[in-house]
Amino acid sequence: MKVRILVLLLFLSASAFAQEKASVSNLRKVVEVLAADSLRGRAYKSKELLVAQRYISEQFKQVGLKPIGSSFIQSVEWHDQYGGELKISNIVGVIEGNDPVLKNEYIVVGAHYDHVGYSADKDTVIYNGADDNASGVSGIIELSRIILASGAKPDRSILIVAFDAEEAGLVGSRKFVENSPVPLKSIKAMLSIDMIGHANLIKGLEIAGVGSLKDLDIPQSLFTATDSLRVKLRSNPSFRINHTDTQSFFKKGISNLYVNTGLKANYHKPTDDANTLDYTGMAFAVDNITSLVLYLAKQPTLHYTNPIPRLAVGVAASFGTNHFKMMNGPIDNKAMLTYSAGISVLYKAWKKASVNADILFKNKTSRTELGQVNMPSLYIPVHLVLINPYNTARFFAGVGPYYSYSFGRYVKGDKLKLSNRERDDYGLDIMMGCVVMKNQIAFHSTYGLKRLMDNQPLMHYRSFEISFTRYLRY
Q1: Domain for residue 317, yes or no?
Q2: Best exposed site among 125, 175, 377, 471 by fewest CB in 10 Å?
Q3: Are residues 68 and 195 in the same domain?
Q4: What is the CATH number of the domain that holds 93?
Q5: pTM of the full predicted structure?
Q6: For the chain, what is the domain count?
Q7: Do residue 288 and residue 383 come from a single domain?
Q8: Cα gap 72→320, rounded to integer Å
Q9: What residues are paired with 159 via a beta bridge?
């Protein structure tokens, strides 16, 4: 009889754990409180944000989280060049790990709780920030409830953090890593839950940056799916890595994942209200985030690696104007349209610089006293790229030499003889631009240093172009 009772109890406890799911009503309740008009958009430094702090702290306590120290609220002073001496207040709770060794390591699950406030020009317009990011805060609270209510015993400890001042420049997460309540090296992974209220719009949940977990395979079978929703894993960080709290951990060499349902709705608009969110989709998101957090918490080892490969290869194309500049004489040659296409290779050679080399087919053109001249050429520029464009959404500048080999010379459509010495050209190529994930755009200015044609007035090659590169491997 005792054996039967024991088996029944084990079955019921296992069933309870398996059946514990995110509650739509719980998620909605928290969002409706944080995104209410009465909180006036939860702007940093506002009295309404203090109300949100107290509410979130109370929710942490209700679901069973423990504070580190005497309070959930951990405040840090910081100096703002415009506002002087200020204070940020992160809200931190912990789920203690069960393994005698791994419990001293941590997974951080964070969501910022501030937003952009309101404007009061003629009429008061409140930016309630339901998706951004009341949804994320609601998600980490519900995730905590699920883990603690289910009786799950993670090997690693889990820090649940509501970050302050994200909208002020990721200040809360930056100050967290600078003043971590646990040894920074003991934090093995960080998940930023930032905008999870519109799974219906992207048909699921995106988790970007899983490639920062070195040699760890996250099986798709870990996640649930429906007919219309699924979890999408991205190895590389999102282009928003510089705009969400993962950045602070990325800079410290900590594996970081950005969890979201996209920017397709009411991002930073006054229409981002609680009644616009997809709460069933939020429950889907929270259930799958919980599975991932528990999966990470039980791994024997977790190590960081930069998910952006050192070598990227892509296709490139450019167009612009070029001409054969007269270096002496009263009249210059006329500029004409030029174009090029080929392959581009980007190699991350140093932390703050990369080497970019292109192999392009290019048509050099100009209108000279002989008429329209066309010189189809192989064009190979090599740049040292500063302010490393290998991180996402970064501006960069590059400079380096180019070499060009012309296959022929055509004047008014007639092919003219081209000596071997005239086929070669070299000079300097300067570029400035921006790279966003797999896409790069740059402006080029080219200065030839070699005489283009024998037995003609002294001419050097010049061009001004815009290039587009799409990296196939990035």
Answers
A1: yes
A2: 125
A3: yes
A4: 3.40.630.10
A5: 0.78
A6: 2
A7: no
A8: 58
A9: 94, 108
Q: Which amino acid would we find at residue 359?
A: I
Identify whether residues 465 and 323 lie together within a single domain.
yes
Model pLDDT, residue 308: 74
The residue type of 152 is A
**pLDDT tens digits, 192-229:** 999 999 999 999 999 999 999 999 999 999 999 999 99
CA atoms of 132 and 262, how far apart (whole Å): 11
- CA–CA distance, 48 with 42 (Å, rounded to integer): 6
φ and ψ of 124, to 5 deg = -75, 120
Q: What is the DSSP string of 48-115?
A: HHHHHHHHHHHHHHHHT-EESSS-SEEEEEEEETTTEEEEEEEEEEEE--SSTTGGGSEEEEEEE--B
Q: Write the DSSP symbol of residue 320.
A: E
**269 neighbors 118 (Cβ within 8 angstroms):** no
Give the rounded percent of residues in the chain with a pLDDT score beyond 90. 70
φ, ψ (nearest 5 deg) of residue 293:
-60, -45
247 residue type, one letter: Q
Tell me the two tokens of residue 97: 């790990």
State the alpha helices, DSSP H only, in 126-278.
135-150, 171-178, 199-202, 246-250
Q: Are residues 329 and 213 in the same domain?
A: no
Query: How far, in whole angstroms, is CA 23 from its chain's centroid?
Result: 29
Domain end position, chosen among 234, 268, 297: 297
Distance CA 46, CA 168 (A): 12
**CA 157/CA 104 separation, integer angstroms:** 7
Question: What's the farthest any 2 CA atoms get from each other in the chain?
Answer: 110
Separation CA 195–CA 199 (nearest Å): 10
* Closest residue by Cα to residue 469 from 316, 311, 313: 316
The C-alpha angle 207, 96, 194, rounded to 5 degrees, equals: 25
